[in-house]
Design a protein that fits this description.
CATH superfamily of the largest domain: Ribonuclease Z/Hydroxyacylglutathione hydrolase-like
Number of strands: 23
Helix content: 25-40%
Structural class: alpha/beta
Distance between the termini: 45 Å
Shape: globular
Number of helices: 16
CATH topology of the largest domain: Metallo-beta-lactamase, Chain A
Strand content: 15-25%
Strand order of the largest sheet: 6-5-4-3-2-1-22-23
Largest sheet: 8 strands, mixed
Number of domains: 3
CATH class of the largest domain: Alpha Beta
Radius of gyration: 24 Å
Length: 534
């Protein structure tokens, strides 16, 4: 019975943990790395086809984004997630696959122009995304689920994103049971729409995030409605647009919640009927999913509106841009407006077109409302870049660059401490992950020195025996020499290898099958081999 740390160890993105117990191989999250990668991640300890289950904390791409790649390389197990997470993954993974395929197509067009002969392959395809989406098993909050003999789980609302959860995992092997809790991303308190993070009472071992383990949000909840209204009025009076790079899922819906209040209370004097464009097909679909899951996930303030038959994230003047033609038309309309578009870190998607049209205009405002990872375009803009390149062109930055301070879906240091302090007894070990290098180290030290927790911040590759409570292997950090993209699953030969891994996994699981069935299986394999060797 062991736990291996794979991703988001002394880093913020690419979450992945590996469990081996009760004869099963399990991943908790399988996320994509975003921004700058500081350390190398170890590969999965087994072939993808031999993974039996994935337990998913939430739908954000840094936790779910490599699931289609897992499927492309032979995984055919089940992915357990909450109802809302399953709904969101059904659109987010397809969107991510679309981006992978479009990027590969663009690179191949560019390669033809430069006489390059090496073709780019997408990380995975739409078929891979659809394949893993069919493996999703939706679960309700608070209900114990027996995954298989020796493995049981339960999801608790953690308040970070619609459907986000901490996951309790009970593992039983040779008569011994150990309980782990994976925090996922712990939500900030008093957020619009979503409930506050739920606590868990007991665990032998805890794996918890530390994104903001070195900072505190404002003691008083900022008046985002008032602050946003002031930014809108100032920008509109100059004849400019307010462009908001926003995560399509979560932050966009929160912004719509604030904008509805501004509209209803007519807080932007002289521009009360200002238009708001949501230019992201993914955000539009996600907003519908928020509505569908409102009864299980919305907080009391939002539910008061729902009970009064008021949609808390819709209002007059809201315009949804779905097609590329509708998107292009937005910037040819001179009316001062709000443009909400993805991606939130400006790394891809339609937001880059809106930045191209508005960054150089001093009358406009670019308003950041979410975390910007190191190495992203959004981080460069926030840190004062004077010029950026978009679509191969240099763009001067003359617009006002602003942030809604303290607006975060992540708990701050106090929120993290409150969550880990909610356990009735201190866990045997608290593993601190999902934070920048120095943050992981300092937060683990804080938990040890100030709160008496047995905290430890592992690097990728660290192995821990859950029965004995001892480390099997402790790794040192391996700095990334060069930013390397995950190996694409595309290509016919890669598909053939994945199929072979899947066949081998089936053979290895056939021990205990009736002799008659094993003989039939062997004959079928030999028949295929004979056909291709002839």
């Amino acid at each position: 019975m062991k736990l291996i740390f794979i991703g988001a160890d002394h880093e913020v993105t690419g979450s992945c943990h590996y469990l081996e117990a009760a004869g099963k191989r399990i991943l908790v999250d399988y996320g994509m790395e975003q921004g700058v990668n500081v350390f190398e991640n170890v590969p999965l300890p087994v072939d993808e086809a031999r993974i039996d289950y994935v337990f998913l904390t939430h739908a954000h791409i840094d936790h779910s984004g490599l699931l289609p790649l897992l499927y492309a390389k032979g995984f055919r197990g089940q992915v357990y997630a909450t109802d809302a997470t399953a709904d969101l993954c059904s659109i987010m993974l397809r969107d991510c696959a679309h981006i992978q395929m479009m990027e590969a197509e663009w690179k191949n067009r560019k390669a033809k122009r430069s006489a390059s002969v090496e073709a780019a392959e997408p990380l995975y395809t739409m078929e891979d995304a659809e394949g893993v989406i069919k493996r999703l098993v939706p679960c309700r909050y608070g209900r114990e689920v027996e995954v298989c003999p020796g493995v049981k789980i339960r999801f608790t609302d953690i308040g970070h994103l619609l459907g986000s959860a901490s996951i309790e995992v009970w593992l039983t092997e040779e008569g011994h049971t150990k309980k782990l809790v994976f925090s996922g991303d712990i939500g900030n308190k008093n957020q619009p729409l979503l409930k506050d993070p739920g606590l868990t009472e007991e665990a032998d071992y805890v794996v918890m995030e530390s994104t903001y383990g070195d900072r505190l949000h404002s003691k008083e909840r900022p008046d985002y409605v008032k602050e946003l209204a002031a930014i809108l009025k100032e920008t509109f009076q100059k004849g400019g647009n307010v462009v908001i790079p926003s995560f399509a899922v979560g932050r966009t819906q929160e912004m719509l919640y604030f904008l509805r209040k501004i509209k209803v209370d007519r807080l932007v004097e002289g521009f009360e009927d200002f238009p708001v464009y949501v230019d992201s097909p993914l955000a539009v679909e996600a907003t519908g999913i928020f509505q569908e899951n409102r009864f299980e996930c919305f907080d009391e303030e939002a539910m008061e509106l729902v009970r009064a038959h008021i949609n808390p994230i819709a209002f007059a003047g809201l315009k949804l841009a779905i097609t590329s033609e509708e998107s292009k038309e937005i910037n040819f309309n001179d009316t001062p407006k709000v443009i909400i578009s993805a991606s939130g870190m400006c790394e891809a998607g339609r937001i880059r077109h809106h930045l191209k049209h508005n960054l150089w205009r001093p009358e406009c405002t670019i308003l950041f409302v979410g975390y910007q990872a190191v190495g992203t375009l959004g981080r460069s803009i926030i840190e004062g870049a004077k010029e950026v390149r978009l679509f191969g062109e240099p763009i001067q930055i003359r617009a006002q660059i602003k942030q809604l301070a303290g607006m975060s879906g992540h708990a701050d240091k106090d929120g993290l401490i409150q969550w880990i302090s909610g356990f009735r007894e201190k866990p045997k070990k608290v593993f601190v992950v999902h934070g920048e290098d120095g943050v992981c180290t300092s937060f683990a030290e804080c938990l040890k020195v100030e709160y008496g927790q047995r905290a430890y911040a592992p690097y990728s590759g660290t192995e821990f025996d859950l029965l004995s409570g001892r480390f099997l292997y402790e790794t040192e950090p391996v700095p990334v020499k060069k930013k390397v993209r995950a190996a694409a699953a595309g290509g016919v030969y890669a598909r053939l290898l994945a199929a072979a891994q899947r066949l081998l996994a089936l053979v290895q699981k056939s021990d205990g099958m009736a002799n008659k069935d094993m003989a039939k299986f062997a004959d079928q394999i030999n028949s295929v081999c004979d056909k291709w060797q002839a």
